[in-house]
Amino acid sequence: MARPRSEDKRNALLAAAVQVFAEDGISAPTARIAKVAGVAEGTLFTYFSTKDELLNQLYMEIKRELREAMLSTYPRAADIKQRASHVWREYVDWGLVNVDKRKVVAQLAVSDRITDDTRAVASAGFAEFQSMLQESMAKGVLREHPPAYVGAILVAIAEATMDFMLKEPAAADQYRAAGFEAFWRAVASA
Amino acid sequence: MARPRSEDKRNALLAAAVQVFAEDGISAPTARIAKVAGVAEGTLFTYFSTKDELLNQLYMEIKRELREAMLSTYPRAADIKQRASHVWREYVDWGLVNVDKRKVVAQLAVSDRITDDTRAVASAGFAEFQSMLQESMAKGVLREHPPAYVGAILVAIAEATMDFMLKEPAAADQYRAAGFEAFWRAVASA
Amino acid sequence: MARPRSEDKRNALLAAAVQVFAEDGISAPTARIAKVAGVAEGTLFTYFSTKDELLNQLYMEIKRELREAMLSTYPRAADIKQRASHVWREYVDWGLVNVDKRKVVAQLAVSDRITDDTRAVASAGFAEFQSMLQESMAKGVLREHPPAYVGAILVAIAEATMDFMLKEPAAADQYRAAGFEAFWRAVASA
Amino acid sequence: MARPRSEDKRNALLAAAVQVFAEDGISAPTARIAKVAGVAEGTLFTYFSTKDELLNQLYMEIKRELREAMLSTYPRAADIKQRASHVWREYVDWGLVNVDKRKVVAQLAVSDRITDDTRAVASAGFAEFQSMLQESMAKGVLREHPPAYVGAILVAIAEATMDFMLKEPAAADQYRAAGFEAFWRAVASA
DNA sequence: AATGAATGAGAATTCATTCAT
DNA sequence: AATGAATGAATTCTCATTCAT
What we know:
4 copies of one chain form a homotetramer.
Chain A: H1 7-24, H2 30-37, H3 44-47, H4 51-72, H5 80-97, H6 99-110, H7 116-124, H8 127-136, H9 147-167, H10 172-188
Chain D binds a DNA duplex through residues 1-6, 9, 29-31, 39-43, 45-46, 49-51.
């Protein structure tokens, strides 16, 4: 395992990977990524020992960034619906701004090149949100189901919602609001 | 006349593609598919001119089959919630039985090798279900949103639900029921 | 060796071969030829056992046709320069009319798929012209050289001449005349 | 800096291409060329992006070499016939020594894989010789024709002559001398 | 550590030829 | 005999990874 000297170069490679994978799918050649990052083909391999390593790191990195975004302004003291609404909004807005990253994660998520370990690490970061959601479900239909399931439903509805927001930007605000209402009724209603 | 092109062989190739792609991802080599289908490497190309063509045909075929499954016992006369429930159940159960096909569609859906045309044809088959769903939304939070959005939410929640049903088979029935309730509250509640 | 039933089909295949090879070179697939000829892919092989066989037959056929053209109106009784001039003109004009055949022969001639046997048979047909040429050389610089050499020079100059006639059609007549004069001086002058 | 691209390797590949193409025609596989050149199959493609590129480069290279040979000892000050004779001799002798290259150029010249650009570049190198030839024609039958035509006739007669020199090596000297005389009478006689 | 040339195992086609109909 | 699907060896080119500089 190499001890990369420059954090900048690593970031440049990850950013280039996002761009290239978004354009051409995760089967795009590493050489293209290196070129976009402005480094030599071989250099990529001192930062990521294999392409699969790059794929896995990239997956974790993007998930981490998403969590960061959701966390940055998280109103820990607010009431439950407000907190849920905050998470919803941060998630959806992050997805709209980071179209490429979202596209790439979608491909990585269904790829068998992402290991179970990576998936575990990536989802661990969202535990806090899930336990929050659990609270909200106390009286809902899903009260007996694991928090991860509610989290999955939030993500599922949010992803569907983003697709429509992107397709009809003029109605984006309505979609965002209606999507959250739908989610909230789904999981929290008495 | 020479040997006629065989529908059986075409089906064998599609079935082999499902198996191989489920195992190794859609980047698996065509040679493997031909071998599993029991035909020569070149034969695949008399049925599908390119690998992309195979991918697109496969996508449409699986979607068609799913629709077939949802349609076969569709209770046109039943009340709305029953019809929605029927669709839900057929969809979810099809996904549980056809694990490989579901896995492959998931990859195809995010791949840019599937053309817009193919996507259009594939989703056209579900128009009927969507208009049915629209009825159910008449009084819900989504009443002003397009039926396709409600369809997307159904699919989204169903997919999340299937994942948990497969992870915890013992609780499968509860998940299926709770998932539908969640969906119904999300879209139909007053 | 097959006993083809229809001479027509054989000719159609040879004509199609000329067209296809002229367009795409002699590496063009046999399937294309069959299609242009209006027969099935496999049928080609009842008329020509292999592609090489087709190539060789085609070479001989075209050479035969060229000889035919040169022979049809050959003025056996005329004086030597007139006979040589006749040969020249027939050759050059045949080449201008049969652009495709000329192009194909050019490729076949340098291909190692044409056997020595085929070459021998093809050139045998031109013996008469060569012995005629020999007469014309009696007093020329080439008087001690084999008639085949003079024949080769005629062909060489004629081919160069045709290229320019095709490039500058307006000057075609001058080229044809000047070319022959050049040839005649080359071989026949005292 | 990494290993620099090696001119030696490029030359080895071109030399190997000559050998392999002379043996088996220009349809010989690139893998054979790489092997003969002593490099990996993929390496060929770092020097020539496609097989067609190799073909075109090879064509230009051989033509350049031929011109070089004709130029190296070109007696600019000598009288016209001597200069023409020099060109003739250099050309013919180059062809006799470089049998393989001559064979390969013959195939390349009639192949449609050689682009018009390549042909233009390759023939540009011979402009000087052609303008020299033009002088020699001042009083000949071809005086009104373009110098390229005279050049083409020289080449045509020379090629025919080489064939006979190779077939009858014992008479090579006579052929070379007679061939030039024939050419000279063809184009320069009053 | 950085570079990019070198490597060689694939991968998707292609195509002459065979053979069931 | 005619048809065209079936065959599978062969071909060009790609690309992750290694390694000389």
